[in-house]
Write a structure and sequence with these properties.
Number of strands: 0
Oligomer: single chain
Number of domains: 2
Structural class: mainly alpha
Length: about 250
């Protein structure tokens, strides 16, 4: 009678086992040939010795990397996600149109928080710089630096959107007082800026979704359209502020 073969301890020790690790775990397990436990203890001590602000940034960065790994390993169907992105973008655009053309700002905030337009222009400029830097890095096959640059660009755009909403909620829309050809030029730039910003929102979110879930072929295909639109919207945001600064503020 045949008995089922069981693996002894030596056989089990010889079998290679692949364990999927997050970047936080890799940081502790990989390295300079020292035992992973010793490396983990050394890294933990260095993290504890960091100032609270730097420790918080470190935890945020490691947590974000863990999230990226989780999304890359998850099998998420793109259709419902892209559909949700389109719906959310439509709701966001509808809210902004209401804010611009229906909402009336209170007179209590007239002359207050006047730094917001300049801050928003600065954020647009920083976003444009981060986009160009990200393009440089991906052209030189530095994927990690490219990812960091594009996340910075997304952060700048997100903070700009918050500042834009607050500014228009408090002060309303600014009317351009110029006349003649300069008014035609301003309105042309403003119209293209507004229309392409509506297009850019779902494109940016979709491009990031494909990247964070490891669908890099689709990411590259959509990014070829997203990048020039996003860059144009960021640059023209600064141009619109310059026009208003010269004629309205």
């Amino acid at each position: 009678m045949l008995r089922p073969r069981t693996a002894d301890a030596a056989t089990l020790n010889e079998c290679p086992v692949h364990v999927s690790r997050s970047p936080r775990q890799n940081e502790f397990a990989e390295g300079s040939g020292k035992p992973s436990a010793n490396r983990a203890r050394a890294t933990a001590r260095s993290v504890v010795m960091l100032p609270p602000s730097r420790r918080a940034l470190y935890d945020l960065r490691m947590g974000f990397y863990d999230l990226i790994v989780t999304m890359e390993q998850a099998h998420i169907s793109p259709r419902p996600v892209v559909g949700a992105i389109v719906v959310v973008s439509g709701l966001a655009v509808s809210f902004l149109l209401w804010l611009l053309y229906v909402h009336h700002a209170s007179a209590d905030f007239a002359g207050r928080w006047m730094f917001l337009p300049a801050l928003n222009a600065l954020l647009n400029g920083l976003c444009a710089i981060a986009l160009c830097v990200g393009l440089y890095f991906i052209k030189h096959h530095n994927k990690e630096a490219h990812r960091t640059s594009m996340l910075l660009a997304f952060t700048f755009s997100s903070v700009f959107l918050i500042g834009y909403i607050v500014n228009h909620a408090l002060h309303g829309d600014t009317i351009f007082p110029g006349r003649g050809p300069v008014r035609t030029l301003y309105l042309s730039i403003l119209a293209s800026h507004v229309i392409l910003s509506v297009v850019a929102l779902p494109l940016v979110l979709t491009t990031f979704f494909f990247s964070l879930t490891g669908r890099f072929a689709m990411h590259r295909r959509v990014a070829r359209l997203t990048f020039p639109i996003w860059l144009y919207v960021s640059i023209t945001g600064v141009v619109v502020f310059v026009f208003l600064k010269a004629y309205a503020y």
